[in-house]
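Researcher: Here's a chain I'd like modeled. Treat it as a single chain, no partners, no ligands.
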Amino acid sequence: MSIKVNEQALNELRSILESREITEKTVRLFVAGVGCSGPQFNLSIDEKDENDFSVEVDGFTFLVEKELLDEFGGFSVEFFDQDGQRGIYVEPDIKPQGGCAGCSCGC
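Model: Modeled as a single isolated chain. Structure tokens:
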């Protein structure tokens, strides 16, 4: 169980924070919502909590709640640049089965 971050994602994150003059480098991985294809993850600047797992990567501290780490086995923070779109995304090591469990959606 871990948090892995590729170099391109680190460079993009560093660039985003510098452009907004944000000096804090503690980044939380969290569930941003749940849809038909399962949970969507995102990143935010945050402070460490006693229920967090943390890892240091190239000057950044990445946090995730231990419960999420147990459920998804770990996370990868990746960079994408295709079809004029670019950014950072979070991918769980263990993919949820069958979309959103127990939700009612029209998919």
